């Protein structure tokens, strides 16, 4: 049983990125100055030469590396963690899923404020003691 990974299908990656950008083959074809059939053939190709890939990447608004390393799993992970829903007023609500517990952060903030407040009190006590010492000398 072989554990070798399959090479990435560049044409399929181009197709998926184009679809995610809500761009039709015709629009990409116009941006590249080729026919829609050329784009269809390109998306069926496993490999694309670097010069052509650079031009396609520019038209799609991504880097050539993004096309080469495209992963649907990563896209779905991003979509799952940051999604947009429409509320009943017609406006969009964007939810960026927290990667931390907000209550824990609130408690950390409270503890930090408590420490800073204690340091402030100590500094004020030292200042008062110094002033009292100076007044006693006079």
From TrEMBL:
Q: Which PROSITE patterns match?
A: HTH_CROC1
Pfam family of this protein, just one?
HTH_3
Which SMART domains did the record assign? HTH_XRE
Q: Which UniProt keywords apply?
A: Coiled coil, DNA-binding
Superkingdom is Bacteria
* InterPro entries, A to Z: Cro/C1-type_HTH, Lambda_DNA-bd_dom_sf
The coiled-coil segments of this chain are 106-134
Where does the HTH cro/C1-type domain start and stop, copy by copy? 14-67
Keyword check for DNA-binding: yes
Q: Please identify the protein, giving its name as recorded.
A: Helix-turn-helix domain-containing protein
Q: Which organism is it from?
A: Flavobacterium chungangensis
């Amino acid at each position: 049983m072989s554990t070798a990974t399959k090479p990435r299908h560049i044409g399929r990656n181009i197709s998926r990125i184009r679809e995610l950008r809500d761009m039709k083959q015709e629009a990409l074809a116009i941006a590249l100055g080729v026919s829609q059939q050329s784009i269809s053939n390109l998306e069926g190709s496993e490999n694309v030469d670097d010069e052509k890939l650079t031009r396609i990447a520019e038209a799609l608004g991504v880097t050539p590396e993004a096309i080469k390393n495209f992963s649907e799993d990563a896209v779905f992970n991003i979509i799952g963690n940051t999604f947009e829903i429409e509320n009943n007023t017609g406006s969009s609500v964007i939810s960026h899923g927290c990667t931390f517990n907000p209550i824990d952060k609130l408690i950390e903030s409270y503890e930090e404020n408590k420490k800073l407040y204690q340091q402030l009190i100590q500094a004020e006590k030292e200042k008062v003691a110094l002033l009292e010492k100076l007044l006693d000398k006079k």
